[in-house]
Amino acid sequence: MGPIETGAEFILGIIRDLGVDCSADPQTLNLPGVWITPSGLSQKTLAGTSGIVTFHVYLITPNHGWAADVATLDDLAAKLAGPLGIADWTAETINLANQAPDPLPCLHGQTSTEWSNNNVD
Question: What is the chain's alpha carbon radius of gyration, rounded to the nearest angstrom?
Fold first, then answer.
């Protein structure tokens, strides 16, 4: 596995350990849940032997009305903010055609993990 796939599995493992449904594939996501997708890859060394992988993290809930949506997103953010190191969330909507015909409420944040050739197969 390369650094993006290894990083994704690491982040998804943290989320799963907290009992939250998550996926890097939005087609397999159960709601409410967390979808992650890579947003960047940087190398710390010229040789490319270590670096940082950054991921978009979307907390997504089915549209059940404002009060229910806000409560679900609040719960997810409170559960995940510390373990993922996310201090800032942006309220958005997201289109997931396999989930609903209309945009779904979500919170969007970013998290990063370090990689090196020592932890990448």
Answer: 15
